[in-house]
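Field notebook, page 328. I keep forgetting to write these up properly, so this time I am using the form the group agreed on. The chain and the ligand, (2S)-2-hydroxybutanedioic acid, are recorded exactly as supplied. Prediction of the bound pose follows.
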Amino acid sequence: AVSALALLATATIASADPTKCDPGEMVIKFSFVTNMDKHPKGIAAALFAKRVNEEMDGKACVELFPNSTLYNDDQVLEAMLQGDVQMAAPSLSKFETFTKVYRIFDLPFMFKNMEAVDEFQNSPVGQKMKDAMVRRGLQGLDFWHSGLKQFSANKPLILPSDAKGLKFRVQPSDVLIAQMKALGASPQPMAFSEVYGALQTGVVDGQENTWSNIYGQKFYEVQDGTTETNHGLLDYMVVTSVDWWQSLDPAVRDQLKSILDGVTKERNAAINDVEAQSRQAILDAGGVIRELTPEQRQQWVDVMKPVWAQFTDDVGQENIDAAQAINA
Ligand code: LMR
């Protein structure tokens, strides 16, 4: 991207964009649904693009498409199989039609914090999960973090009974649908880009997401408040198509993977800080955050955790045991 030609052009034409790909460079389109500057996924994607465009200048060039501007998560994986986009990082809840093993990450209260998530994903069992979709044409490259999820609604949520009868937007995941049903709520699967409007117009009453999404999408503006439940995980798989990945020159593939691994390590290690900044930004903007006593939180655990039993066959009891051993 920053070839001598591009630098010359930048010097002479004030509006030239040094992040634009140069002729002859292989273009890697990377599509995602969050913002690029404050969200952990956007920050990681921007760092990946910067490093590739500098270190692989003349060979490869990453073009970023944030904020669902190219595809939403329902479309991006099909587009990837068609070769229309090369990289994406959908949440693990968005791979339902490709594999059921990621369901472990959606089960409520499975991981006690992000360190436990990290340890599980970096174990041999977690690393093997990157290959879970290969026979369906997708290659998982690395896990990226967002964080633990919180509930928000158009009324205060203190006890699980407060959620009863409310409509909650969920990602398209059978586990999340079952989780909301366990609360006596009505789950409404919906694309991420539509959630703000749906909350604002009352199509749904509430939603669950991380601090960075509640802040980044301004959900707090159209909700009574957010309750700090830390009840589930939102995490991503950086993914590409097997066809495209295998078509690369091995040296190019290795360099891309090594840059991606470096970015993953650096940004995943910063996740708690990035999420805490979004939490604080919600407060600074006048948003309401409610904390639960341990007794109150335990009531949410008691109502939601029985959902695990419905999905044990999909995720494997041994994997649940491994995750729980890490929590202990
Ligand atoms: C959602 O749909 O709520 C999330 O998967 C969005 C995201 O990518 O963080």
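OBSERVATIONS:
- The longest strand covers residues 225-241.
- Residues 3-16 have pLDDT under 50 and may be disordered.
FOLLOW-UP: compare against the apo run.
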